[in-house]
Amino acid sequence: MTAGGAARRAGAVRKVGALRRGLRRSWPARWWARQSLRARLTLLSTALFTFAVATGAILLLVLQRYALTRVLDSSAQRTASDIARQIEEHPSLRNLPPTSGGVSSVQVVDAAGRVIAWTPSADHLTPVLDPEQLREARAGQRFDITNQAGSGRLRVLAKRAGTKTVLVATDLSRVDDSQRILTRAALIGSPFAVLLMGLATYIVVALTLRSVAALRHGAADITAAGLADQRLPVPDARDEIHRLAVTLNAMLDRIDSATARQRTFVGDAAHELRSPLASLRVQLEVAQRLGPETDWNAIVDDVMVDVDRLDRLVGDLLALARMDEARELRREPVRVDELLDRVVSGYAHARVPVTVTEPSEPSREIVLQGDPDGLHRVIVNLVDNAVRYARSEVRVELRRGRLAGRPIVRLTVTDDGPGIAPAERERVFDRFYRIEESRARESGGTGLGLPIVRDLVRAHGGSVRLTDRPGGQPGLQALVVLPLEPPTTPA
Q1: What's residue 54's pLDDT?
Q2: What is the pLDDT of residue 438?
Q3: pTM over 0.90
Q4: pLDDT at residue 317 above 80?
Q5: Nearest in space to 479 (alpha carbons), one of 491, 455, 462, 460
Q6: CATH number, domain at 146?
Q7: Strand order across the 354-357 sheet
Q8: Is residue 43 a contact partner of residue 32, using CB atoms and an 8 Å limit?
Q9: Backbone φ and ψ of 25, nearest 5°
Q10: Interval 120-143 mean pLDDT
Q11: Is the domain of 354 the same as that of 380?
Q12: Domain membership flag for residue 155
């Protein structure tokens, strides 16, 4: 494209943009946007009703005239047929009998256009149609003409009777009177109907929007005072406003619950972070007071313990934050058996031995679709927890199985520690919950290991629970069930 063409195109684009902005800023659009919803609905419905009334009135007038005219034409056609039959039977007939059925007058003209027969009310000298109209009437055309006396309008049709033509004229005054009456009724009644419709619409919309106003006031109160013990009012009518209020209240319940969980989580995290930080501060203050006599090796060892606690706590908090923000779990083929062997090999120098129990069936590779980092963290957290409380050993087993007809893999981590009372086994999956807080802190636990395991396992479509050690011996067993096929996400 040449430079001139590009400039012209840019100018056209600017003009179109300016035109659109002008249309957006036009006075009717601005005025309409400033009106309330009640006023807009009332104006729109009243305008539509006015259009419907006007259209209906016009259509009624047209149909009424058409129907009345057809009745007159039908009566005139019958009269013309009767007169034509009489003329054919009595060619010399001059005086025709009086008409009825709305017919005003009848004339019979010959081929030259002269009147040769007539009814008492008809002119016996001049035909009602001129020669041009007479030719068209013989071809089937109907004419609406003014009465020769000027007192009204006539509708004329023709019927051939050999070389003669029967002209039948019917009075249109009754049709015109009916049209006039109906037009006046429409002109007088339509404004009242439109006014009544506008008033009724305004009242109905006002009553309907009363629930919306209540929702708005309720939302304002919640904005000012908070979600605690406050919800939007639910109207009694089982309509769309009722369903909207119920849906919004359910959303507010979820927001309130999430906010409460967030406040609890933040408070617990702050509390957990304060303990190692306070310990670090005390140790450093003591070392500062002792001065040159400080045993810095012992201080560093103690400080490193608290630093390790802080590092684990921060790492667990970040893991939970990532899981809360993640919308979709990363999935790829994972060799769980190899992952387990790799994790267990890292506990060669743990305080108690960690061994993998071989399943009774022949060993085969176990592959599932999942997040390798997440599954690695599940195994590490369970083994860490077992090693922390075990007395002499930790055993890990991985085997295939079926549940409800679907292939699964079962991971069990068993220790011979003190175990957990059945009443506490669900609560340990709550964040920052500890059974023996002082003992957990001494052992380095953060209270987030099992909650992270639960969230990761659920994200993979599985479940985790704590049971007694098999065989009735003291200890605890963590059982993780994971589907070998990825869970189906509902649409």
Answers
A1: 92
A2: 39
A3: no
A4: no
A5: 462
A6: 3.30.450.20
A7: 354-357, 394-403, 406-415, 476-483, 463-468
A8: no
A9: -95, 10
A10: 86
A11: yes
A12: yes
Domains of the chain: total:
4
**CB neighbour class for 270 (10 Å; exposed up to 12, middle 13-18, buried from 19):** exposed
Do 358 and 463 share a domain, yes or no?
A: yes
Pairwise CA distance, residues 18 & 12, whole Å: 10
Question: For residue range 23-36, what is the model confidence (pLDDT) as tens digits?
Answer: 555 667 777 778 88
Say yes or no: 312 and 233 in one domain.
Answer: yes
- Identify the pLDDT of residue 48: 92
Taking Cα atoms as reference points, which of 283, 42, 268, 72 lies closest to residue 157?
Answer: 72
Radius of gyration of the chain (CA): 49
Structural domain of 25 = 1-29
Asked if residue 330 and residue 314 are part of one domain, the reply reads no
What are the beta bridge partners of residue 468? Answer: 476
Distance (Å, whole) CA 258 – CA 379:
28
**Residue 447: both structure tokens together:** 């209270």
Long-range CB contacts (within 8 A, 24+) of 468-476: 468/419, 469/414, 469/415, 469/416, 469/419, 470/414, 473/416, 474/416, 474/417, 474/418, 474/419, 475/390, 475/414, 475/415, 475/416, 475/417, 475/419, 476/386, 476/389, 476/414, 476/415, 476/417, 476/419, 476/420
